[in-house]
Each structure stands twice: as C-alpha cells, then as structure tokens.
Amino acid sequence: MTGGVLVVGAGLLGTSAGLALRRAGVDVRLRDSKAEVLREAIGRGAGRAEEPGDPPAALAVVAVPPETAGDVVADVLTSGAAEYATDVASIKALPAARVRERMGSTGRYVGSHPMAGREISGPGAALADLFEGRPWVICPDEHTDQQAVTRALAVARMVGAAPVTMSITDHDDAVALVSHTPHLVAVLMAARLVDAPAHEIRLAGPGIADVTRVAAGDPALWTEILSANAPAIRDVLRNLRADLDRTLAALDAPDTAQAQLYQLMRSGVDGRARLPGKHGAARTDFVTVSVIVDDRPGQLARLFADIGAAGANVEDVRIDHSPGQPVGMVEIDVRPGTDQTLRAALTESGWRVP
Amino acid sequence: MTGGVLVVGAGLLGTSAGLALRRAGVDVRLRDSKAEVLREAIGRGAGRAEEPGDPPAALAVVAVPPETAGDVVADVLTSGAAEYATDVASIKALPAARVRERMGSTGRYVGSHPMAGREISGPGAALADLFEGRPWVICPDEHTDQQAVTRALAVARMVGAAPVTMSITDHDDAVALVSHTPHLVAVLMAARLVDAPAHEIRLAGPGIADVTRVAAGDPALWTEILSANAPAIRDVLRNLRADLDRTLAALDAPDTAQAQLYQLMRSGVDGRARLPGKHGAARTDFVTVSVIVDDRPGQLARLFADIGAAGANVEDVRIDHSPGQPVGMVEIDVRPGTDQTLRAALTESGWRVP
Fold it and tell me: Which processes are annotated in GO (biological process) (chains A, B) (predicted)?
C-alpha cells in the first residue's frame, strides 16, 4: 500500500496487524502512548517508529479501546498523519459519533471490526496470523469516501481476514447478540459461584466450565464494551429475561408446565444448531470418535500420529478430564465417512475406542 | 461382589456400568423393558440376561430416567430380585420420596449419582471407562442400612469412580448450581438465536459456541431433570435474575453505572476461577502455548510428536478454528516451568509459536 500504514495502539490487535502487514511487505509505522509498549512491538517486528519527515500514511489503523477510538481517529486525520483512517473497536456507533462530533464529517473514516482476539493482551500476545480467515467487518455509511473503504478492505485482505460489509447498526446489533450478551450470561452464571460452598463446586464438570469460559475476560475492557453498546445488548437481554421469567414461573409449577419447559429446551437445541461450525459447515457435518488415553507424556503424540497414518483430518478435538485419575477421553471430530475407517485403524493400533 | 449385580435399564449409564463391572469380574445381569436395547447391551458384553433361578443380586443398579427410578427401585426390592438397590438418576430427592412412599422405609435403598455422561445416549454410546476418575455421589440418610452404602461404594470403586458421600439436599442443591442452572442459562442464550438474522449469526465465534454448547442436550430428559429439581434450581435462578435485573438497570444508564458493571465482571472472573481444573488443580496452574497449524492431515500428529519429544505433558488442548481458511491455532495447556522449554523446542522444530 503506497504511503504505508500507521498503526496507533500497539496492543494485541495493533501489533498483530503490524506483524501481518509487515509480512505482506507494507511499510508500517507504529505509535503508542506508552514507550515500553511501542518498543516491544517494534522489537517483535511489527513496524518502525514514526519519523518527523514521514508523508501521510495511506491509512491509519486505530487499535485503542472503544471509548477513545473516535478521538484518536480525529487526531490522526486532522494532524495529517494519515489520509484515511479506520478503527478496530468491537462497537461501531460510539467511535463514528465521536468522529462526526470532532470533524463535522466522517468521510475519511470508516469503522471496522476484525472478529479476532485472545484472552490475553498486549504486544507480547500478538500473532501475525491472528486475523487469518476471520471475518473483518467494515461499516461504511452514506458519508464514507470510497477510498476509505477500499483501503480498509485492502488491509483486511492483506492480513488474511475475510472482509464483510455491513451497516453500523447491523454490526452493533450482531455483536450484542453473538458476543456481548453471551459474555454477560457467562458472567451472571459464574458470579453464582463466588459464594457457593466448596462441596457444591467440587461436583462441577465440563458443562459449567464451557458455559462460564468467557467470563474470565478482562473486566475493565468488558465494562467499556458493554457500556458502549448498552442499547443493543439491552434489547437482547430483555428478551432473554422474558424467557427467564417464564422459566421461573414454570419451575414454580413444574407438573403443569412440562410442555413449556420442553418448548424452551427445544428452542435451545434449535438455536444452538444455527451456529456456524468450522469452515461454515453445520456442526452436524462432523462425527465424533472417542478414544481413552492415559495421562502420560507421549500418549497424545502417539494418538495423533496414528490418526494421521489413518489419513483422517481432525476438524476439532476435545480432551475430557478425569479429576484425580490418570486417564482421560479424547474426542475427535471428523467428517462422516472417515469415522469408521478411523475407529478401525485406532482399534487396530491398540487404542481403546469405545 | 458375591451374588452379583442387577443392572436395570441398559442405556448409556447402565450399559457402561455393566461393561466396567464385567471387566472387574462381577456377575452382571441386565434388564431392560425394550428387548432390542437389552440385546444390544448383552451383545456389547455388559452382562447376561436374568434367569428364573437367579438368587437375589447383592445390589441392583437402577439406571432409568429420574421420574421412574423410585418405582423401579421399589419393584426390584419387593420382588426379591436384589437385596439392596441404588439408582443413578441426576436428582436424588424425587426417587427417595417415591421409594419411601412405596415401601414405607428406604433402608435397603441408597440413592447415588455418578457425575459422568455423554451428549449421546443408548447402549451403543456406553463406555467401560465412562466413570473412571469421576465423582460418584452417594446419598445415605438416617434410615439407610450400612450394607446398602457399603455395596454402592463397592460398585462405584469397581467401575473406577471416586465415591463422594453427601446428603440428598446437598446433592440436589449442588447439581442445581453446577449443572442444571448452567444448562438453563445456555438454553436461554441459544434460544435467542432461533429467530436471529443470518447476517448476525455469521459473526458468531468460539465464545458463544462455548456458552451454548450444553444446550444441544436431549430436551425431554432435561425437561424431566429440571422439573424434578425445580425448587433448588429456582433458588439459584432467582439470584441470577436479581443480578440480571441490576445489569439491565445499569445498561439503562451506563454512564453512571460503570462501577456496578465492573463489579459484576469482576464477580464473573472470581466465580470462574473457583471451578476445579484437571486433577483438582486451579486453572491458573497451567500456562498456554499457542501454535499455528495448517489444516492438513498429519499436522497434529507431527505437532504432538514434537510435544512428546520435548517431554511436556499436555493438560488440555483446544483447536481454534479459522472459518474459510486452511489454518488454525492449537492452544496447549502445560504446567508452568515446562512452557519455556516447550516453546523453544517447537520453534526449533519449525512450528510457528507466536
């Protein structure tokens, strides 16, 4: 990209973008308010420091928290550091409103959101491959210059992402449904454990571990995200509460409310089935093969070597723990048709394939 | 066990118990109201059919749905088919009440609950190792004969489980917290997806997949479980709703309620941290090493072989999908101290270890 890219904010997303763009041969300048963060990102090869004589960058990628993203975009555009700018905050109405407020127009700005992340943060957690194959949502409106969109699309493609265009409202509604409300639900469930007796928590298994996994995310960042997308989340959460209230009423008279409880369970199955699987395939496109393994070094190596030798491609894998015991179960998802061959081959190699 | 074990109900749990007990050399008789189910379980080696001249079994293990468990226990004890009986339903107050109603006393019965299962059912899904290392809760009360407890403990140990004794109330409260309410929460979230626009669901990632995973469970069985443990679940769910209502209020005025939202996020992190990890170790006892892999057969084999060669024992593994792209990230949890060596060894072997 002639003119290069200016990345502002050398955290997980900014440094990852820098690494991926450098790999694609792009001139990347980095900026961060913290000198040691900037140093680490440069040290990792995510780009170079800005220099006084630099011409305006073709595009600024602003990777700072949602609440400051709009201001940083406005600063970068008005100072002449970049011709166009995008930000990568996980909500899009807030930064766009701030840019409009500051600049009167949002022409040279287009908001975007790469659907990628990790539960750890900072330049040390950055990955050149973080965006590979992930949706990168780009949200132009009627005031956006085509050049801003073109350049944001180019960056998304250069880092290996799959660009998707949608309106700001559609984006913020979508993440309220598929990211922000699930986070809240996980947190609400996890919060029930804080004061629970130890003998109850002792019976916890993989189910509640799955339900609450995302609740471990950074509380400060999530507070900011939820605040910024409050109206859209509230809509989803209100509907969820209506179902919850009906469920509570049904639990008050379970003998007469079985049909209602069943209907809710059925909706859960149906809703879950709509989630995209790997490569967009429905989850039912895979068959699970379970294998018992001993909890010793080298067992998984031997198992996966045998799977490879059987010619099977693993779509997903889960290890199911056995607390207190030296055995576990490995569940391997493969395409239907390959499961029989795999079962036979693993049994042949001495694995316990129930 | 002299006298042998009678397993009633040759589904997932009953057949798995039969397989494990047979392996331990126990004489297992099987009973199921469906002839073809019984045939399949016997065919898999889970035991033999009952015979007219059989003496009473030392213990009956009743593995039928919660709503009929108490009646089946009473039938088995009054008919003389077994001297003592336990059931394995996931709730304990309901079957105990039914046994007391039918027999006037619960002396020869002790309820139990192996904390093991799969998302598939029937004798075909049974595993001799299903209970290995899992807690098997046994719930005696002041009327229970010591022999009933002794025999139930013996069966739990023979199938490889880790027996835990607690009161019926403690058990039902515990599963309401760690299993039934999380299931409901997952269902409530998944139900929001039923009528959602496809362009919103398209942005779904691994977070919501985790939160809603258990919602795929059998709706009829779950309706029965939730109905039977309604009072205990209601207590947990009411507290959750109180937090939810506070959250909705905070989302109505997010600018003034940041401290409150932050506090909730913080509780989520703290609650999540209380969940037991593998072998009872806290989850923070592990360090994650991430590796980029190509989505081709043999890649995981090579990776796990290299991990084995490095001497590292894998505590957990996750494969993170990249929809539409031929790459993925494998996250490997290892004990602190081994992660540096593992990173170095994998990098040395040519892996991308960011």
Answer: tyrosine biosynthetic process
